[in-house]
């Protein structure tokens, strides 16, 4: 059963894929769901980024978005924060789960 969350598999730079997943605690019908999202990556391929979903509850599908120069700005709000499950207070771009 799906959790009805937004999920994008995005190529921010050529060969750098990220899994951007709306948090379960995010407000529904928010203006920009990416403000309440976790970002995982970079991954060298879309398939590996999709594999990250095996570690999370089913979002109900995803959108695969190939590289475009505008993606870095469009997804910047989601990429500025560490995943909610991380306790470190160190600023960084994204986290890669191993």
Describe this structure in words.
By secondary structure, the chain is α+β, with helices and mostly antiparallel strands. The protein has one domain. Helix content is about 15%, strand content about 25%. It has three helices and four strands, in the order E-E-E-H-E-H-H. The chain has helices at about 45-50, 70-75, 75-80; strands spanning about 5-15, 15-20, 35-45, 65. It has a four-stranded mixed beta sheet with strand order 3-2-1-4. Strand 1 (about 5-15) and strand 2 (about 15-20) form a beta hairpin. The termini are far apart. The model is unreliable at about 80-95 (pLDDT under 50).
Strand order of the largest sheet: 3-2-1-4
Helix/strand class: alpha+beta
Tell me the radius of gyration.
12 Å
User: Percent helix among the residues?
Assistant: 10-25%
What string gives the helices and strands in order?
EEEHEHH
Shape: globular
Tally of separate domains = 1
* Number of helices in the DSSP assignment: 3
Residue windows where pLDDT falls under 50 for at least 5 positions:
81-93
Give descriptors for this structure.
98 residues, alpha+beta, 3 helices, 14% helix, globular
Layout of strands and helices, then pairs:
Elements: E1 7-13, E2 16-22, E3 37-43, H1 46-51, E4 63-65, H2 71-74, H3 76-79
Parallel strand pairs: 1-4
Antiparallel strand pairs: 1-2, 2-3
Gist?
By secondary structure, this protein is α+β, with helices and mostly antiparallel strands. Helices cover 14% and strands 24% of the residues.
